Amino acid sequence: MESSSKRRKLNNAGSGLKHQNLIDFQSPDATRLSSSSIFTLQTDELLKNAKVDYDKALRGVDAQLHQLKTIIESAEPHEPIPITQATATFEKTHRITIPYPEPRPAKDAPYKLAFAKPAQCNVVGSYVFRTMTRHQARHCVDMVVQMPRSLFQDKDFQDMRYFYRRAYYIAVLAAQIREESGMSVEFEFLHDNRLLPVLLLHPMAEGQDQDGASATRKKAKAKAKDYAIRIVPCAPEDLFPASKLTPASACNRQADSDDAKSPTPFYNSTIKAESTYISYLRVLTRAKNECAGFVDACVLGRIWLQQRGFGSAIAQGGFGHFEWSLMVALLMQSGGRNGQGSLSTSLSAMELFKAAIQFLSDTDFNGAGPVVLGKAVGGGARDAGPAMLDPKTSLNILHKATPWSTALLRRYAKTTTELLADDAADKFAPIFIVKANVLAELYDAVFEINSADITKSASSDDGGGAVWANSHDIYKVLSKAYGPRAELVHIQQPAAKPWSLASKGSRPQPTLVVGVVFNGPQMAVQLEKGPPAEDARDAARFRQFWGDKAELRRFQDGSILECVDWSARHALGICEEMTRYVLARHVKLFEAEIAFYGDDFVGSIVDFAHTDKAAFDAVRRAFLAFESDVRNLDDLPLSIRQIAPVSPLARYTSITPPLIGAHTGRLAPVDVNLFFEHSTKWPENLVAIQEAKIEFLLDMDRRLTTAHDNMTTHLGRDNRDLGDENLAYLDVVYDSGAAFRVRIYCDLEGIILDQQVKSKHLDAYIRNAADDALARFRWQFHILPLHTTALATACTRLPALSPAVRLVKQWFARHKLASHFPDELIELLVLHVFLHAYPWATPSSGTTGFLRTLDFLARWDWRDEPLIIDTAGDMATDERVGIAKDLAVWRNRDPNMNHLTLFVATSSDHSGEAYTRAGPSRLIASRMTMLAKAASKLIKAEDYRVDPVDLFDTNLRDYDVLFHLSPKAIREVNQAAQRFSSSGATSSRFKNLDGATGQQPLPVRAAPVAVLMEELQRVYEGTLVFFHGATAAGAEDEDDTIIGAIWNPKLKRTKFRAGLPYNFHAVDDDEGEVEVNKQAVLCEIARIGGALFKKIEEVEEEEDEQD
Amino acid sequence: MAPQEASDGRFAVLPVRMIGSEAYPVETVHEIRIRPNKPRFPTANDGRTLYLKNIPVDSTEAHFRELFATLLGGQRQFESIAFENEAQTVLAVDPARATMIQGFAKKRKRGDVEAEERREEVAAQLPEIWTRRLQNSGSTATVLLVEEASVARVLKKIDRIHSGKGAQPIWGQGVDDKDVSPLSTPWIATHLRLSRADKLETKNSVHAFFSVFNRKEKEANELAKRLRNEPDEDGFVTVTKGSRNAPASRNEADEARAKMLQKEAKKREELKRFYRFQLREERKREQANLLKGFAAAQEKVAAMKEKRGKFMPES
Predict the structure, then answer these.
(1) Is B219 on the interface with A (CB under 8 A)?
(2) Strand locations in A473-533 (E)
(3) Could you tell me which residue ranges the Ribosomal RNA-processing protein 7 C-terminal domain spans (chain B) (predicted)?
(4) Are residues A135 and A264 in the same domain?
């Protein structure tokens, strides 16, 4: 009996029904749990940190609010007086300019103004709900003052009459408060809405009441800045019937004299919103009471929005904390089935946050029908802009938002949703910590429109003011002009500032900042194709829009299309040309009023040309031709398995594009690895293998040159002595100018080295040497081919990657770090930024890619964080965890990071050391981080106005020694190296006499400066650290004519030993002690370099001397 | 700076004046440390050898010939110099088994055969790609003088320099340009030219290499064969690699090994969740993992907390 029950259980276990109460670790859900638990913990910590200590930061607010309430209620009511008279008397007695909205009431306006005690005063907003955060720009306590119904008439919703009354009311309150409370009082527009002036009070803390010890007053002053109180007048509920204020009603006839019928949705929504304060206070309170996580969800929402630059104010996109919490509350209370909420009240804060983000990313507020939070009531017209309706009040919660701000919001929400679903990425920092609204990092093109015209008049004004209306016009024109070229066009409107009671309201700044996100390569399309000529209506419209630029063209396929041709060559240039043209044509904004930024990235930093891609493609084509030439060779001793290019030239990532056939006086051969099929014929000896490889190369050379006569070949030698490692390569130069450098792979080499590493009989130093050799072997023959394929694929898939990599490489080069960072490592860093672009979407231009890479470098804490780049997209969470653990082990073993500073793992190399084994050292890596931090700070401070030259400008004072190279001498070496032999063709100063002129240049092993650097680094390893901008591959020597160097900071004064590995001399005062003989070293270097150096300069820096 | 006694094996300091160049017009003193050579394994020439530490990186034989000429008053006292990182002339080729086996039996060869082989080995060297090699900074050299007395004279002369009676020698003074190939631009240019190797010359040296290599391999094989067959003086037969049968090909061996591993893995897999105690243990393990994961997460957050600014939204 017993045994049978056991049997049964076993069967159950076998059939997969096992232990349902436990989490199955094999399932993907379980692993997600572990990565999400850390996110939850981090969020908890953030919430703890973000909460405002109300007792401390907002001490005394309650008392002040009470006081204010009494003051407000004590204001003296008066009977209606005609508006002109009331205004004149009031302004005279109180010296307060009543903040009437534009246009101010006419002199002969027939209606009367009165004042009465408010129906109620109520504190609303984040103070009540305790959802303020410490990181807010300012802490504001909102108190609404409900104006009594008796003040209004039924038709007051028309013609700004409500707003005139409101303005008068607030002016009276201002006078009262100023007299009674002793707080400093200012006017301000509520959320930049020019219809709604409110009072902004800066309370003087208790310090002033006590008679004035200056110290306490100072303290009080500092304290007074901490928070402000806003007095917001509002209308009683249901003051005006909703039917009068539908989006289609035209209520503001006065403002719109020529066309009385045009609807005024913004005006209508503003009035509607005036009577909803109290009811929304109720909605939010209910949500707070019903759902424990609501408050925290609002705080999270606030931080998320704030990091993306969103706020309730129009300048901040019109979607802020209030809109967020209202949206969440309404989703909890309605919208689901059977009148239930679509969100459960039992959700936690994190879940609510995720749901809200999901909602924002799924919902198109600019779609055809309005988005209704709850059950839709009636049809009715829809607002022109984004719409999110609360059916109960029929208010469009997004009435302050614009089509572009909601589009941006949705884009952010989408990337956040993607991030939340991405197991691999670190979620916390991109969502809550990183500041995302750095315009230069966000947009591919940023320009300023600076024109007084946009603040003056507008073609149609629905109450939002001229800037609001003009921005909409500009947006319409631009988005039509860009069409599919741009993913997003965003216009940032200027923020309104508070103003003093006596002055007239502030005019808005006449500046709009427009940002454009390109749609990949579309923006660079030069020829805009329109409708066919037969389609008369569309063609006419097209002509109407583009004006003289439009022209008819006939295409190869026989179609005749309307077209616009742009003369600029690259994306940013075309964007600028288009923008200037359409804005001048349709909005009358001209040359000087539009300022573009960021051009220099394209022009002066890296020489981008529209032909770059073609140049790289040409290399790949040339390579394919070469490959077929080699593969078609008859009876090679071994059959060829693979021919793989391993050069940046073959993966779209060299700073200067390869120019095949152009006479630059220098060949840039593409490195190629040649893999033979496995063979047992190789000798089982490393040295012999190397010699056999040379034999192979010579054999191949013979066959190639016999089979083809369009090429010359040269056997080249690597700078190594005969030993375990590769000795030679074959340069194949086609007459077309394409050049390839072939190295041969022998699998036996890896096996023998591996055996040596693992062998227990060999001495430790031999094993270490073998280990190093093996790493280099793997790098050359395993990592590089895979890397090249991965990068080439990525560059075709992500068109912005190639220019971004080239910019970043240039940055490393200009800061003289290039000699320490392999090209491949830099490429990976940029690729990482593209694959994990959070909090943004994948960069769509080189500039944004570059700036975000700098941001990433500044942020990367390489001591504790491995960089994991999943190029193949198949890395499991376990593997990532394993890699992180490996790093922890490394750091434990080597806490000073003498060996592996940067830990970079890819899908093909989980060890994390393939790319960074040979450096950069800790010193160099710290310098990189330091420079990136400085750059990132500059970008944050200046944003899109940053001068790219500043980012690329390096400070030479940081080095101890500067070696100024002589470009002339370098050129001479280059020329001399080109010659066949010293006795060969004579060189001459005159090009026409020079035997080498007109011939194809010969391939050289490396650039002269690179050779010099190699030797100096070898000779002075441990004494000096050299910095130079040109990398071994591709870069021109002439680019960087200064080698920087610093003395190894580890070299201290020490006792003499026979084994000291540097040039030393005795120190005068103490006999036994020696230190580096700096002058003698520099003398030696001067002798080695000779004419190559123009000057060797010791940088004087006091602090460094003492180190 | 007091002169140092050299006789007891401590280093004497030889100051050498370095004349600055156009790029770096600073005149400075380089210190070479000198002592009589006392290698761990004494040789016949030790008495007339000096050990030099911290030689300049651009040292050549010509430089030291001149330097010692000024110290000893004449070129004839100087015989030769050996630098620390000088390339080994012996070709480091050993066919797979040669090293191991050579230890067992010393081979004797006739002198002329040996000389012929040495010539072959030299021919097997690849053409040189540097006209001049730099010494590592702070490296060493040994100078062989003609007679033992010179050693003492050198040290005495250094003493005199320290006491101000002799002038400090100047580096590179008197060195004939013909003896030393220049550094600087021609040095790099020539190197780059030489790196584009001459195909014929390289081919010849590769062929020479393989004739040496094949000969050595053959010798090694023969030696192994002999050792396998002949008992040594104690009557033992040495076990050597490579039996009478041809060795199995590496491929086959790898395949067999993979097969074996596969089999083992399968066996292990089959017995994985077989017993109840295994299931129970697995469950326990999972639970522990869960706890561990949570603890790790907490730890990470705590570590983040310690670093400031990690929980502060940037502004």
Answers:
(1) no
(2) 486-492, 499-500, 511-518, 527-532
(3) 195-313
(4) yes
Domain that holds residue A972: 957-1106
**Assigned domain for A458 exists:** yes
**Chain A residue with minimal CA distance to B134?**
A1019
Is it the case that residue A936 has pLDDT exceeding 90?
Answer: yes
Residues A990 and A1069 reside in one and the same domain: yes
* Cα-based distances in Å from A44 to A30, A306, A324: 21, 18, 20
What are the DSSP calls for A260-272, one per residue? TTS--HHHHHHHH
Does residue A285 sit within a domain? no
Average pLDDT, chain B: 79
Q: Which two tokens stand for residue A630?
A: 């080699």
Shared domain check, A268 and A154: yes
Q: Report the domain count for chain A.
A: 6
Shared domain for A634 and A726, answered yes or no, is: yes
Question: CATH classification of B12-86+136-180, choosing from 3.30.70.980, 3.30.70.580, 3.30.70.330, 3.10.560.10?
Answer: 3.30.70.330
CA atoms of A857 and A838, how far apart (whole Å): 14
Q: Model confidence at B239, in pLDDT bands (50, 70, 90)? A: low
Find the mean pLDDT for residues A796-815.
Answer: 91
B28 and A CB contact within 8 Å? yes
Task: Tell the burial category of A1100 from Cβ atoms under 10 Å away from its Cβ (0-12, 13-18, 19+).
Answer: exposed
Interface test with B, best of A427, A694, A1068 (most B CBs within 10 A): A694
The 3-state secondary structure of A546-566, one letter per residue: HHHHCEEEECCCCCEEEEEEC
Q: Which of A751, A778, A793 is where one domain is finished?
A: A793
- pLDDT tens string A498-509: 888 888 877 778
Single-letter residue type at A1069: D
In a domain, A11, yes or no: no
- Taking only the tens place, the pLDDT of each residue in A613-654 is 888 999 999 999 999 999 998 888 888 999 999 999 999 988
Q: Which of A749, A777, A793 is the last residue of a domain?
A: A793
pLDDT value of residue A382:
63
User: Edge-to-edge strands of the sheet including A120-124?
Assistant: A120-124, A139-146, A227-234, A197-202, A184-189, A499-500
% of chain A at pLDDT higher than 90:
30
Considering only the beta carbons, identify the residue of B87, B138, B301 that sits closest to A41. B301
Whether residue A961 is contained in a domain is answered as: yes
Rounded to whole angstroms, the Cα distance separating B143 from B80 reads 6
Q: Does A448 touch chain B (CB under 8 A)?
A: no
- Cβ-based contacts of B206 with chain A (< 8 Å): 691, 694-695, 698
Pick from A245-249, A913-917, B153-157: least confident: A245-249
- CATH code at position A865: 1.10.1410.10
> CATH code at A717?
3.30.460
Residue A1054 main-chain phi, psi, to 5 deg:
-145, 170
Nearest to A848 by CA among A597, A657, A610, A651: A597
**A200 and A349 together in one domain:** no
A52 and A64 inside one domain: no
Tell me which chain A residues have a C-beta less than 8 angstroms from the C-beta of B30.
1063, 1065, 1077, 1080, 1083
Same domain for A266 and A196, yes or no, is yes
- What pLDDT band is residue A1045 in, cutting at 50, 70 and 90? very high
Contacts of A691 in chain B (CB under 8 A): 206, 209-210, 213
Predicted local distance difference test score (pLDDT) of residue A280: 92
Residues A678 and A764 in one domain: yes
A714 shares contact with chain B (CB less than 8 Å): yes
Token duo for residue A179: 């007299």
Domain ranges of chain B: 12-86+136-180, 250-303
| CATH number of domain containing A983 | 3.30.70.3030
CB atoms B93 and A716 under 8 Å: no
- Please indicate if any CB of chain B lies within 8 Å of the CB of A424: no
User: Looking at this predicted complex, what is its ipTM?
Assistant: 0.83
